[in-house]
Amino acid sequence: MTDTAATDTPRSFQEIILRLQSYWASKGCAIMQPYDMEVGAGTFHPATTLRSLGSRPWAAAYVQPSRRPTDGRYGENPNRLQHYYQYQVLIKPSPPDLQNLYLGSLQAIGIDLAMHDIRFVEDDWESPTLGAWGLGWEVWCDGMEVSQFTYFQQVGGHDCHPVSGELTYGLERLAMYVLGIDHVMDMPFNDPSAPIPLSYGDVFRQTEEEYSRHNFDAAETEMLLRHFEDAEAECQRLLAEPHDDPRTGKRIVLAHPAYDQCIKASHLFNLLDARGVISVTERQAYIGRVRALAKLCADAFVATEAGGWVPEATPA
Amino acid sequence: MPDLLLELFSEEIPARMQAKAAEDLRRLLTDALVEAGLTYASAGAYATPRRLTLAIEGLTAESPTVTEERRGPRTDAPEQALEGFLRATGLTKDQLEARDDKKGQVWFASITKPGRPAADIIAEAVPRLIRDFPWPKSMRWGTGSLRWVRPLHSILCILTTEAGAEVVPFEVDGIVAGDTTEGHRFMAPGRFAVSSFEDYEKKLKAAKVVLSSEARADAIWHDATTLAFAAGLEVVEDKALLAEVAGLVEWPVVLMGEIGEDFLHLPAEVLQTSMREHQKFFSVKNSATGRIERFVTVANRETADHGVTILAGNQKVLSARLSDARFFWENDLRVAKAGMGAWLDALKSVTFERRLGTLAERVERIARLSREIAPLVGADGEAAETAARIAKADLSSEMVFEFPELQGVMGRYYAEAAGHPLEIAAVAEEHYRPLGPSDAVPTAPLSVAVALAEKIDTLTGFWAIDEKPTGSKDPFALRRAALGIIRILLENGLTLRLDRFIDSALLLHKIALSRPKVGDDVIDTLEEIVEEIADRGVFGAAFRAVIDRLEKRGDTPDLSDGSVLRTVGDLVPDLSTDLLAFFHDRLKVYLRGEGIGHDVIDAALSKPPVDDLALVAARARALSEFLKTPDGENLVQGYRRAANILSQAEEKDGVEYRFGADPKFAESDEERALFAALDTATTGIGPALDQGDFAGAMARMAALRAPIDAFFEAVQVNAENQVVRRNRLNLLHQIVETCGRVADLGRLEG
């Protein structure tokens, strides 16, 4: 890694996102779009969870809107949001120069490595709901955590072979640091000199209020509990379907549709947690139920072609 | 003699693992080399965030040739036996030698294993060591199967002699050993070759890497204290943090920054904890005011602006963190000033342990017990109860939720804010103490009362649900709790009988555990027994008294087999005895630490009351000291002489001599002198014991030795006259009994 001259400083939140997109595109990642469901973190996107399984190489990067209902602060806290963006990179197998590739991405968004103190501080990652863990670091820039850097060891109860390298950037926090902003709502979302300049607050203050009220007080818990049960049952039912599709006669494993239900169950659990209706003891049990679904989905995915399953050679 | 240099270069190694890994590397590789027949003069291991390094000096160039002689079959043994022997040794028949042996002529083989060059041995040992390295947690990466703490990138392995350096050739999972390494990731990128350890260390330094973690820690501490001193301030010492920070940098650059004006009013502990836990900052305090005013952070590089940007960034992060802390502090103060009622309510929904109920219930039990203990430790009962009730209120506070390690510390601040007197507020912090074997014990009577109650409640609770420590497993830190009680009692010199409190605390747990299963009448009866224990001191008597009272009232309680009363009545004394024995075990460990022999402690433990641990310890210490004096020898010898003859006679006669001896049957002067001496001793021992003067009491016992010796010289115990004989044996019994009033001397060894 060389101390090259800094790229000019970006001017807006979206410019940071765009620069990350083009940087990782230039490094050969497929730039994917956010998953169209409510998730707690970018890791839940099937492009990470499922694609980290099996033997097939993979390289993807994407923005993922993420929801943490308990973190809602009605838009008042300078850095806490119930809805925020993560930037996620997953490369399988992890390339030997992944640390340098990562540092290049910091330069790309205007962090001059010659002027800042970048550190890799031990932080092992574990997702009890996904049955996943890995070793790695949180990356510090001048004492602030700007990313998570993880080598996946296990996902959905399966050992990862080969190992994927995962990078997760908390976009708001990183952008606030790069742009020198103290309160997230004050951050320019688009270019401040645009005809219609918009701040993060213009875009999200109202939704933070609405969702904070919804998550803490308004969400109907009876219904959420019911939906949790439904999602769980549907996930299990889909995976119990035979692999051979009666209509087409093809082998079609319902791994992704089932995984959607697992994601749903996970988000419903988060909402129930925010509503405060889950006791400490129950909490573990719910997490265990979601993990059981994640494991079933992982089992199903590795039985698909994308998951590395190879059809048995048919006799000539 | 060659020197070996090995460097394993990887991505960032967790700071907490570096020191042990370096030491493991040194130990495992030197062991392997020695095992293979090499010797060395010295070995030094080093760690930075990105490398483990081992430098071995004065290694032998090759292992010695070893000749081994093996005995084979007899020369006249069947052909197959000889063939087998040739196969095993890899020799031919003409290489064998026939020699005469006790059993006839035998084939001997002489097998020579030639020495091997050090490089070959190293090339075999290092890959094995890498594959089996004992990391606490390791990982795979990419497509490989090798495990290391983080991806391993390169291996430097050279043997240096006067002729120059040579790479030791080997390969591990595609990584080929070479003679190059890298310097600082940002300040000196690029690889370079090295030719010896000196060269390596020098080039690393030029490439902005300080190899030795001690040197990095020293530099950090030196620079930090210098910066602080120049500002008229002082760095708060934190050795663990220093070691950790030294493991996070290869080129430490110390920077001192200001804490925003808005945060300086936060309690010092909050600033310190927040800065240490989140940012790994050292606290810098104003020694005059005790306030934390600045911080020291350690960067891993120099910059053109001398760290201005880095410091500004760190300051900004700190402000965000401290804003959170201030937010918690201000919210908490509001609740505290309102009397902390909301927190106490919240404890009702926090589980202490599944079977042992909520924290609110635990607080209730501790309060009750504190009130009972208080008068015995010089505290006011009511104040102790109040203090106990609020001592755990801070567990519901936002600050403690964020920083669990501040429990108690915050409790004290909040209790003061709630308007409680200082000594009551202090209990919140001090009742957890001692936190470990080196932590100070509380001394203020109120804190002592609640600290004892808190620990007794813990121990009896886990005893009541049968969760005792086993072997190395002690998940609830019960040994620590018992040792805490022992230290509080001993270090404060508190003579206090534990039985009563163990019994009532056990019973309180049993009441809580039984509540869902039985009617109110049974609970009422059990509660009555708790009250009664306070008067009677032990469970058994209290239990009996309450049952009698009920029976007199015509309220005959259900005591049938399997009834709750019966079960509790049977179980509490057993658990209580068992728990007291646990205390005795911990006391033994503690006193052995003072150099007191286990036999001495056993001797002291054989004299009731044994539930007064300070008294037991005082007796054991006095005995141990006394045994080191000439009088100690006299005491033991006098005792033994009397006890031996007495027990021989008792065994032979099948009776115990327990009657008082009478001087009127004495026949000789020596016998009469012994009676007189015994009389004098007894008169002195009583008052000495009452005053806790065990040494004085034992000195008086020891004074009996001369008259005892004289007695045995002059007198035949086994006299013809049976009256005289019995009288003498009874006299011996009196001596044995008198000498055993501090401790059972029969337990002493050798």
Strand and helix map with partners:
The complex is a heterodimer of chains A (316) and B (750).
Chain A: H1 13-26, E1 30-31, H2 46-49, E2 58-67, E3 83-92, H3 98-108, E4 118-122, E5 125-127, E6 132-141, E7 144-155, E8 158-159, E9 165-170, H4 171-179, H5 200-218, H6 221-240, H7 255-274, H8 280-301
Parallel strand pairs in A: 1-2
Antiparallel strand pairs in A: 2-3, 3-9, 4-6, 5-6, 6-7, 7-8, 7-9
Chain B: E1 3-10, H1 15-35, E2 42-48, E3 51-57, E4 66-74, H2 79-89, E5 97-101, E6 104-113, H3 118-131, E7 152-161, E8 164-167, E9 171-172, E10 175-176, E11 180-182, E12 191-193, H4 197-206, H5 213-230, E13 234-235, H6 239-246, E14 253-258, H7 268-279, E15 282-285, E16 292-299, H8 308-337, H9 341-346, E17 351-353, E18 357-358, H10 359-373, H11 381-391, H12 398-402, H13 409-417, H14 422-430, H15 445-464, H16 478-491, H17 499-514, H18 520-536, H19 539-552, H20 564-592, H21 598-605, H22 613-627, H23 630-653, H24 669-690, H25 694-702, H26 705-714, H27 722-739
Antiparallel strand pairs in B: 1-3, 1-7, 2-3, 4-6, 5-6, 7-8, 9-10, 11-12, 13-15, 14-16, 15-16, 17-18
Report a brief summary of the structure.
The complex is a heterodimer of chains A (316) and B (750). Chain A is an alpha+beta fold.
| Quaternary form | heterodimer
Greatest interface and its residue counts? A-B, 40 and 44 residues
User: What Rg of chain B is obtained from the alpha carbons, in whole angstroms?
Assistant: 37 Å
Low-confidence stretches of chain B: none
What percent of residues of chain A adopt helix (DSSP H or I)?
Answer: 25-40%
Query: Within the largest sheet of chain B, what's the order of strands?
Result: 2-3-1-7-8
Q: Give the radius of gyration of chain A.
A: 21 Å
- What name is given to the CATH topology of the largest domain in chain A? BirA Bifunctional Protein, domain 2
What fraction of the residues of chain B are assigned to beta strands by DSSP? Answer: 5-15%
Number of helices of chain A: 8
Overall average residue pLDDT of chain A: 93
**What overall form of chain A do the CA principal axes indicate?**
globular
Largest sheet properties of chain B? 5 strands, antiparallel
What is the CATH architecture descriptor of the largest domain in chain A? 2-Layer Sandwich
Mean pLDDT of chain B: 92
What general form of chain B does the structure show?
extended
